[in-house]
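Practice problem: Permease, YjgP/YjgQ family
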Amino acid sequence: MALGYSKSRIFLPIFSIAFLIASAFVLLNATPFAYAKEKVDLIVERGYLGSYKSDLFIKYDNNYIYFAKIFPLLQSAEGIQVFEVENEEVLRIIEAPKATFNEGEWILENAKITTIQPQLEVGKNPLWVEEQKVYKTLVGFKPKILDNIYEKQGSISIVDAFEAMNLLEGQNINTQKLRASLYVLLLFPFFAPLMMVCLSGFTPNSNRYANLGGITLGMILGILVVWGILFSFSRLSMSGFLQPEFSVIMPIGILALISAWLFVRLLKA
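Answer key — structure tokens:
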């Protein structure tokens, strides 16, 4: 007791505020806020948001897409070619010098569409070429998905991570890195409140006979060690060395169980 108040009454408001802040941070990571730091870093380093990937060739549904340049943060691309395939035969080739991603689909500007006739006849042109100022295609194929697949570093929002996982699983592509990023976004913000609960169990009832300096040093070292382990595991999972369910979910789950046990003890004290 301290001035008639138990530990649980003292710490409960602090725990509640900490969990609310962590929950708010998780919700923010489901919005474009998740890309704020990356945008700021690009502006500081280069003075603009023009980071791009070049010469990418990927498969999406029945389409094969080539990007000469793609700007994930600007959601635009240059030199795009889309090969529409059915039954292992190319039906149509769409080429455009520029394209932008808007409202869930790619809008190709000044597109050249070359349709290949399914049946070839002597004396007839097998190709039918037309041009369109605006051509919409690749619905749901977000440019930020590419950035997260091909870069070891790179931010992604929770919503985009879910959509990317659904997309890649449909293409039978490994989603380990995306799963690791998603678990980190969902679970790591709760590290601080969970550690607060754990450390509260080691807080002395009175500072009269306690070595506050030693206790504080021990708590700081404990936080650094636990954070170092969790951070290392998360990086190993993103690099493909460990499965994220083992290296991210399980350690946070163990920490949550320990916190719950200590919190129950705190309530009974």
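Discussion: The radius of gyration is 26 Å. Students who identified this feature from the tokens alone can consider the problem solved.
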